[in-house]
Design brief:
alpha+beta; elongated; 5-stranded antiparallel sheet; 2 domains
């Protein structure tokens, strides 16, 4: 027995395979077939379970900020110098300096996520802001409404159709599609009222 411990891993596998074969040869024929049939059943069950897990994980995408939190779509100018610590970002997003100052003051800012596409002019961005905090989104809406900048436009997805929003945004970025921007097809249009 002690000689087996000193051997390499490959020889140990060989010895353990021989041990298993000698054990299997000592079993009666019917018992060996029963043992193999049971192992095949477990292997099939394992394979089916793994397949079901893979299919279910592929079918249900992970929850992300855009699928979980309320959001707003708007256009606004880009801000920030583009250097480390002051990245190019939409006008109404938090900078690293603002976040650090709020944390030092003991009043951290609510999370404000965004995704953006830069318009054809290179100075304006099409942005979707989302946040778990409705107050943060209300602040973005209020800032957009009070802005005197002519590039700031707020798009209310509850009252304006997706196709109208897409057509408006294609004026500042010709290749823009809302389904690509949002990562999912837009909801179907509401049926027209019958007269």
């Amino acid at each position: 027995m002690a000689t087996h411990c000193c051997r390499s891993a490959s020889s140990l596998r060989f010895v353990s395979s021989l041990t298993l074969l000698s054990y299997a040869s000592a079993l009666p024929q019917g018992r060996l077939l029963s043992l193999l049939a049971r192992c095949r059943g477990y292997a099939a069950l394992l394979a089916v379970s793994l397949f079901a897990c893979l299919v279910s994980s592929a079918a249900s995408p992970r929850p992300t900020a855009d699928r979980v939190y309320p959001s707003v779509i708007l256009t606004c100018p880009l801000t920030g110098s583009g250097v480390s610590g002051d990245s190019r970002r939409p006008l109404f997003s938090h900078s690293k300096a603002q976040i650090a100052a709020a944390v030092r003051a003991g009043t951290p800012l609510p999370p404000l996520f965004y995704r953006m596409e830069i318009a054809d002019d290179g100075k304006t961005a099409i942005v979707e802001f989302s946040s778990p905090s409705r107050a943060a989104l209300a602040a973005v809406r209020a800032a957009a409404a009070s802005s005197a900048d002519p590039t700031v436009h707020f798009y209310d997805t509850n009252s304006v159709s997706y196709s109208a929003i897409e057509q408006s945004l294609q004026k500042i970025k010709a290749s823009f599609t809302l389904s690509r921007f949002l990562g999912a097809p837009p909801p179907p249009a509401a049926p027209a009222a019958a007269n």
